[in-house]
DNA sequence: CTGAAAGCGCTAACAC
DNA sequence: GTGTTAGCGCTTTCAG
């Protein structure tokens, strides 16, 4: 509707002066400032953000790449990011990929089109070689550790945490331990889980690992397999509390007792795990999200490690 | 970096021609089209979105007002909205209010600044009189029914659903029924719950209703009160499955059996409810979100009712 | 303290 | 088919 020229004309000043009062510049006489403000109020005028963004070359919008938006773990990181975005007056755009590498690249190119000031990657499909070129257009922050110096990281030291979790299970007397992972071997956290497992127990038997677990249902299905192996595992390390809950549910349904018949350890300290009293490794994802946001707006390439903690409940 | 002029100059054509190939206009000779495309590829050029948005007067960005971003119910709606946004090539900006009315108004004014093409309100703090003026700047869609003709609605018929839920409990022989709600009496769904309750059971006794329940912990605390009343309720209708899970957890912890000692009915068919086999009223929030998005981009002011369904499990 | 004017990067009449 | 040009709405030198 009304633009800055209309305001200027009506107030009998130049657009420059209007711009000055809009941006609280000094060197505007109180008289004109009031005159302009009156017209602004009268017209209920608000400056056009696109024009400002165009000229400033920034939008105060940051994008968050997540694979699924209905996954508790990513929601936690998003939660942390949103916390900080409000504090710093940024807007956040949610960019769900369903692990589609092409879509991920499209999202990254929103840096180049100047639509986004920065992007935070909570989980990725492309390799870093494909991602880093986009840092030329704006900061890219990862919630996973990477050596690439162009990428700032607010990361979880998953390897250490996995090793500790497996040792914990071992200490409790478990030798036959199974685990679930979110993705196949192309994912770093899956590989880390494997490596940590090997360090503690040696190479995992093929039927002790179940891939592609995201939801409770996936956990349920995993348990259907794991708990019917002849040499069935005495403990299961799930890659999330929802998955653990599914395992729990199935175990109970076939009359097993937890932890007597099978011990269960989850991840991320989600409400459902609390409800079922499942012990869990809390990677403090909210904090990871908050830190990621800070790195993003600072255009920092630091590598910040987020501490984890094990929460003991009654499932192991 | 490079802009459309650079491309034009390098390709030996006018900016118009470049713009034409960018937007797949016809009436560009194959020869020039190729020449331009080559330069575009060579420079890895992408048009600036702010410039385009400025001139077009739209951003293909829609905002979603939610109170909390870590609440399963709102996540479900957001999920539906994101589904459709990808399909239609829109971006979605998450706008968490924590029920701060002032912040909500600020978000609404993003329509006026032309930052957003539309906004979807999943839950509001302001009254409609304060909200409707913003429809002058762009479509506002509500996930709650309202008579205001300026507002499109993709709504749940909560009143009917609540009545049915309470009748169901009554049929099962329950006379002393308690319930939880998310907010105090200023919220429409709270009022609807009250009215529905009255229709079925008459005026609720004050200690049979617990306000401000959002999370499992809130449910736990609600149960701590409800299950220690002398005339304790024989059934509880929770305002979400997470809340129901908290109630479940506390009931179990004091040795009660569900549904024998207390029946439990949840809402929204969330994973946690499935895990605990809690019967639930599924308001199909994902679908509500999808429909809301469709209304938003169609600039429709239709009032669409989303059907609900009761899922029978073993908690009642 | 104030304003004219030159852009930011792009689209779309309009003319040729 | 193609190019010239006038904006979109704002910020920011640069002169007064």
Automatic annotation (TrEMBL), chains A, B:
The record's annotation in InterPro entries points to:
HTH_LacI, Lambda_DNA-bd_dom_sf, Peripla_BP/Lac1_sug-bd_dom, Peripla_BP_I
| Molecular function GO labels | DNA-binding transcription factor activity; transcription cis-regulatory region binding
Coiled coil region boundaries: none
Question: In which domain of life is the source organism classified?
Answer: Bacteria
Which controlled-vocabulary keywords does the entry list?
A: DNA-binding, Transcription, Transcription regulation
Q: What is this protein called?
A: LacI family transcriptional regulator
State whether keyword Transcription applies.
Answer: yes
A Pfam family (short name) is: LacI
HTH lacI-type domain spans which residues?
2-56
């Amino acid at each position: 509707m009304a633009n800055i020229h209309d305001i200027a004309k009506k107030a009998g000043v130049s657009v420059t002066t209007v711009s000055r009062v809009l941006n609280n510049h000094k060197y505007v006489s109180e008289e004109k400032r009031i005159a302009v403000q009156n017209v602004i109020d009268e017209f209920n005028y608000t400056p056009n953000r696109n024009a400002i963004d165009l000229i400033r070359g920034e939008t105060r919008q940051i994008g968050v790449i997540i694979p699924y938006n209905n996954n508790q773990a990513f929601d936690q990181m998003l939660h942390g990011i949103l916390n900080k975005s409000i504090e710093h007056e940024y807007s956040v755009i949610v960019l769900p990929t369903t692990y589609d590498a092409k879509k991920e690249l499209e999202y990254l190119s929103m840096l180049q089109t100047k639509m986004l000031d920065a992007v935070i990657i909570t989980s990725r499909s492309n390799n870093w070689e494909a991602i880093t070129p986009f840092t030329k257009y704006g900061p890219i922050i990862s919630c996973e550790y990477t050596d690439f110096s162009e990428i700032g990281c607010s990361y979880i030291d998953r390897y250490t945490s996995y090793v500790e979790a497996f040792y914990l299970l071992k200490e409790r007397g478990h030798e036959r331990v199974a685990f679930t992972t979110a993705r196949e071997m192309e994912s770093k956290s899956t590989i880390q889980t494997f490596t940590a497992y090997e360090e503690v127990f040696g190479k995992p038997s093929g039927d002790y690992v179940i891939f592609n677990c995201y939801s409770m249902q996936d956990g349920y299905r995993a348990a259907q397999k794991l708990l019917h192996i002849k040499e069935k595992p005495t403990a299961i390390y799930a890659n999330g509390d929802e998955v653990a809950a599914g395992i729990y549910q199935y175990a109970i349904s076939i009359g097993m007792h937890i932890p007597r018949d099978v011990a269960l350890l989850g991840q991320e300290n989600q409400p459902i795990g609390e409800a079922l009293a499942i012990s869990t490794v809390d990677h403090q994802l909210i904090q990871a999200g908050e830190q990621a946001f800070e790195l993003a707006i600072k255009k920092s390439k630091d590598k910040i490690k987020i501490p984890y903690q094990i929460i003991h409940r009654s499932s192991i």
